[in-house]
Specification:
Number of domains: 3
Shape: elongated
Radius of gyration: 30 Å
Structural class: alpha+beta
Largest sheet: 9 strands, mixed
Number of strands: 16
Strand content: 15-25%
Amino acid sequence: MADKKYETVIGLEIHAEFSTHSKLFCTCEVKFGSDANTQTCPICLGMPGVLPVMNKRALEFAIRAGLAMNCKIASYSKFDRKNYFYPDLPKGYQISQYDLPLACDGYVDFEFEDEIKRVRIHRVHLEEDAGKLVHADVTGDPNRSYVDFNRSCVPLLEIVSEPNLRSPAAAIAYWRAVKEILEYIDVSDCNMEEGSFRCDANISLRPVGSEEFGTRTELKNKNSFQHVLAALQYEEKRQARILDEGGTVEQVTLLYDLNTGRTSPMRSKEEAHDYRYFPEPDLAPFEVDPEEVERLRSTLPELPAERRKRFVEEYGIPAYDAGFLTTTRQMADFFDETARLSGDPKASSNWIMGDVSALLNSAGIGIQDAKVTAAHLSELIQLIKGGTISGKIAKSVIADVFETGKFPKQIVEEKGLAQISDTSAIEAVVDQVIAAHSGPAQDYRDGKKKALGFLVGQVMRATRGKANPQMVNQLLRRKLDG
């Protein structure tokens, strides 16, 4: 905060749906966008007498996530019933974990304001997701809401941080870092628009220098970085104003209004005792084999922070480039392979951050869905370095590669785009340009050096951009200076 009277304290509870094929305790398919209530069965609908069976793949994903966030994996764990009533919770309780979570005592390092910050991870546990309410903005009926249970029982990972964050912006940077990690280890698509990556944010204020935490409020179930940032910033100011006036902050769960940019109380904030946790009687406690943990650890890829560091050290590219190129694992893989094949990491970085990213954004796709590959781009870079094509021609070639999937050499040959490097051929065009533009030529001789750029442009235009730019410059200078 700009006002140093108070210190902001923030903790996040991040929820990520796993990308498993089936649900956590039944064999129903996990598929976003299906017709309402078509991906359900008696188990995920909570019918009497049914018995859940744990999805082993979801357990493996949870262990991998815990390891990626430097957590200790419990050798013994269990599931618990978290009791509360809500229309989208068909059983009247949620199968979650309470006193014996799967993983705990970890940390996530992230970059914020050019420094590496660390957030301690209190616990990581596995639970089932609830269903979803469909309100008037979808149904068109302001007096009705409907329940879609397709999401009920989808495997959900909850990552609970310690209250180590000291600003709303830092909280968002940490949240983004967790998203990167989960995407890199391929356990969740973290699609925020589809609701598979969400968070609850707790925020409180305390006088600077105080060790005692203030009363916290909570923003529930948000799936937008911008909305959480704005809500936390507003809540930070609201709580400071209450404390300045001698008031008391109430411990409540908040709603955030996008239109007004303000928070408002929804209900009093629940504590653990409100949920009346007790061990899930239909699921036996389970042990985690240490050898299986080590096997899963060996499957973890190079994580984003490690990869950024390696890119800077191994390829000598700027930290900014490394940060951009490691935003997704697919983009990092693409750069890694392009740099290796082309032998020119900086040129690879420039092309990916520039033309390739622009084409991807225009098409609305990720690099993994594009026709252009590392082999394509490395061949293009080699054509430029070898003098076969100019940088300007290369821009049109990469666009054709993106559209057709053809290799650059083939496009250059088919369209006759090879650079003209024959001295006599270029010299003939240079002579024609000087003769046709005697005014700019004399301007150059009179000391107006900028006139050279105009003449170079005329030569390139006459050769449809295929003349070797360096040779054009050399020949023009030699003839005009002579």
